[in-house]
């Protein structure tokens, strides 16, 4: 069913009784703090909030293609949240994400009336056995699942020719700031929808840049957590060694609210989440939203590296005022000039990680497909056949499925693959970790999403924050990456930078 028609039917059946535009509450660009305060003070209801976002999806999605499906139960869940809030008052207010609508990337499973398809017709009407681990935590926190955000099909892992933000089910997602610009992927819909105020907050996933890149290109904040900090159970996989789930929001504080809700141990992703749970601070991450978070932080600036600013004199000139801001806020900037050896290691690491991911993808995807209750396909091989059979829907002749085919030719993890994985571990230690430790850095700073090139293979965390707009109005970000478990430092850095600059502005829709 067409998403616009579905929204109209949902709102008609459940009774649209409120005009969001007539409210004294400022919906657009509203932060979670604004929303929470208004809900607690009875100046806003969850129904009004959901109605506003449904209207914005209905208005903007035909152009932006940011949302694949809306939850037909969204207004029912909003009414339920409002009733629960009334029952707690006046004894106390609801906390966290209670009554707040959230969009999920379409590769994050929900056991409800929504599909989970990774943007592909091959998984349409498949039935998942249960909610994804992060969705269980969101529901426990009281969040309302508003719908599924569009994405680059199969998280950009079907074909090397797929445009960022394209999938067979919804078509091409559009950057809300500049229609002709690359919206970046693969969590494209999550970034474009929250940038355009079609959702309060969103979730994305990242294997190698899929949170940081669309966040940078759409002037929003993206947090790529340490691998294992958030559960990957119930997420259509690429590489368990690199996959992670994280928030994409309009502000650092909003992203931290969501991060607090989704981190922690999950028995369905036990090994990774148990290992990473040691990094989670007892009082959560909100305590690191500090106005003096940059004070005393050592930040590395790789001026001559391809991950930093090499061959980008104009970009470097653009970022110099930001470097001055970082200094004024008390940070110590460490110029890393001699990056030749570092670049060689990182280039080799990036080549090896994609070879490893092909092997890991086939194993992980087959396991995911096999555990589905029902599904049109049960293996990568069957997905390839499905695409060939439905080549017009999936645009196989135009975009192909070369990554699928290369991954299908792999034969598991043998001696060569183990050596490859060992080389990746060494490269991470001799590259990024060595650079961080030798220079005593709290974070590495790069333009745009470029830090992803050094943090992906090792499962390290990163944060993107809006940094400006070029002459055409296209956004770009600044990214901070750190060692495993360094989210508290990264949040302090990102929040202080954001508050000092306040660069983000809504798109000119």
Automatic annotation (TrEMBL):
UniProt keyword terms in alphabetical order: Signal
Boundaries of every Amidase domain copy: 48-490
InterPro entries: Amidase_dom (IPR023631), AS_sf (IPR036928)
Record carries keyword Iron-sulfur: no
Span of the signal peptide: 1-22
Protein name: Amidase domain-containing protein
Organism for this UniProt entry: Cinchona calisaya
